[in-house]
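Ticket #4471: complex job returned nothing on first submit. Input attached below:
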Amino acid sequence: MIINVARKELKSVFASPMGWVILSLLMFAFGTHYLNGVNDYFAVMSGAMRPAERTGVTQFVGQTVYGLASFIMLFAVPLLSMRLISEERRSQTLPFLFSAPISLTEIVLGKFLGLVAFLSILIVYVAVMLSTLNIWSDIDFGFLVANSIGLLLMVASFSALGLYFSSLTQQPVVAAILTFVALFALMILDRFFAGDPTNTLASLSLTRHFQSFSGGLIDTGDIAYFVLFIVTFLTLTVRRLDADRLRG
Amino acid sequence: MNNFTVEAIELTRLYGGREAVSNVSFNLSKGEVLGFLGPNGAGKSTTMKMLTGNLAPSNGSVKICGIDMIENPKEAKALIGYLPEMRPLYKELTVDEYLIVAARLHRVSAGHIKAAVERAKERCGLGHMSKRLIENLSNGYQQRVGIAQAIIHNPMVVILDEPTVGLDPIQIRDIRALIREVGGEHSVIISTHILPEVEMVCDHVQIIDKGKLVFNGSIDVLKKQRIGNKLLIGMRNAPTADEMLKIAGVTEAEILTNGLMRVRFAEDAAPAEAIVQAAVQNGWGLHQIAPDQTSLEDVFMQLTYQEQSAESQIAG
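Support reply: We reran it on our side without changes. The output follows.
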């Protein structure tokens, strides 16, 4: 049943130009960044004489592309997540889902998975693009896997937050702005506490938990953070929708 | 074990202390069509939302084929097809895509989806619209898609909130035939404020006003109330009321303007013939005689009005 809701969401994304435009724009951005990364690699490495100054091509190009990806998703996810519930609220299509034999949890999970599945296309695309380096070099696939998992978790967290804000309002644009502001605050939270890295608030920052992944390290602590983040916002969304049913 | 498909038990819904629906109870058996009548804001849609699990009742319960909507919402919802007042259509999808989504969400098994979609399209006259975007369809066709969506999984109970709004007369006729057809196998609840429609398609009628049921019964009761024991007589040389009262069976005669006279007669009497004879003998110049039908609107007004006056009496 969750799958059916997710399929419906994917169909809706691809039925409008929005999905295709975002997909192509992001692919273009990642592609150019990848090319620049490869060019820069040669420029930088030809100047680096001593072995200690040299870094692997995977890390060099990978960090450029994944760094950009996590930043760009900050703009892309709110644009995609904004319409998930608010649009249905506005065009009054929610009763269609509410009167079908599916629970609220299944509706919310379905919508969430639909969006994450759409964004996974980009994550797979980036991973495949970087794998092409393997044709003339010997790349570190572990680094790619860690980064992909990290990016997936981060994008899923963005989506969960976006979904929640979308359930709060009837206006997709309001949902997008709220999501963007909240995500941006969470991203730069650790900058505010740069002087005091042990501060509890700083460890709420999404960037900080993505850092270990971008270094190629899969840390269960960070996975737990992202999973908790997602579960929290999905639960809040279910509760918000349940309030609709109770309060009307 | 009874065979009620819908049981509403003391449904009450409060909106900030105000009762939108209060203490509505009714049962519906298999194969019946129930018409829900009421003025705007009477609580028709609210009741329907509660029946379909879109809104939690403040008090009372709903059972669909014996399954409680609050305790087992999934099982109960699987037995219902619902078309809300605002059509829940995903306008960016084509008719086929939308109906496939609807079939999947309503647990139609993968092997039967195609057949179910075809059948629903055929029943709603949407065959040639399969590949069109819902957005580009006319209002009437969108309404048909909405109805197709509600009957696609062959539900035990079909609940339609004002299904004939925005349709042209031919489409309305088709939809009414469809409602009758669906009503043959399953139970149907429709809400409407078009009174003749109720007479045409419904077996049972409920009139709701200010959240309370004011009438609940068979359509025949309503019809009887409508026809009544009255004659409308037009005469060129109208006699006085007393003269009319002399004719056997006539209990009341009322002179109206432009030479018309309304005559009330006793329950089993049929004084029409006697009146015609008297008119010929006395040269009253009879040019018109017909049963005086109260319009359904009048019955409806009476019922909602009676309730109000009864209330004010209690208050007074």
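The mean pLDDT of chain B is 82. Closing as resolved unless it happens again.
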